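Here is one such protein, fold included:

. . .
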Amino acid sequence: MTDTPLYAEKCAKLLKESEIRFAGIVDKDGKLIAGGFKEGLVPYEGDETKLQSFFDFVSKASIRKEFDESLGPINYIAARRDKAVLVSFPFPITQILMLISAEPSVNIENLAKKVVEIFTDVN
């Protein structure tokens, strides 16, 4: 995938945010193509497996189009847990997902704005 270095750069910018634990781009086959866990972070037991399960869930939800006409397309899907917030941003044209795991204190709306800001920045 030719955009992988660009995606890696965008994920690295997100990982500089103090509350973000994981920022990665996953392709339609469920393969991590850019990003990962914050350097030096010890993932919670089973984090990687749980992120894969979360990807499976959000990918199924993200490809559903039955409400797109009446409500518009999905901008993001968020799940708030006791220990982490998981957020998925579908990129329908390229059929990839941006997955983020953050501390439970994160403001999801502010996080969504930050992701949009980073991914629409041409620099």
